[in-house]
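Worked Example 4.2. Consider the chain below.
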Amino acid sequence: MRRTILCTAAVLACITASATAQQAAPHAGHGIKLADVAGTWDSKTMGPKDSVLATTVLAATADGKGWTMTFPTGDPVAVRVVSSAGDSVVTEAGPFASRVRQGQTVTLLHSVSHYKGNEMWGTSTAQYSTGDTLTFKVTAKRRP
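Applying the procedure from the previous section yields the following structure tokens:
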């Protein structure tokens, strides 16, 4: 009986130590900092066969506040930084007038962007007021 209790205690200690290590692991890495991606980014949103559907200028700040996305015409659209980890930044924007589907409104644009140096790539999923969703490939280069 005593061995059973000791074995059970040892197993629980191992499980607890393993769970603690797994929880601490994400913090141990060197994830992206918003300061690493601060700047002005010229972005292309692409459809099938990498045809460019829209261009934007993303203004990214080091603190994540005040990010904006600006189309060639119209006012800047506020961009919210949702999270960042590894090489990725997750953002959301909307509502705003769609440049891909004229006359429709993008109620939410959810983007996952991967950054390396002065290059960015990823995907954006637009949810429209009609209930439709479209996913686009996005690339960008940071201005010098």
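The CA atoms of residues 92 and 110 lie 5 Å apart. Residues 2-28 form the longest helix (27 residues). Compare this with Example 4.1 before moving on.
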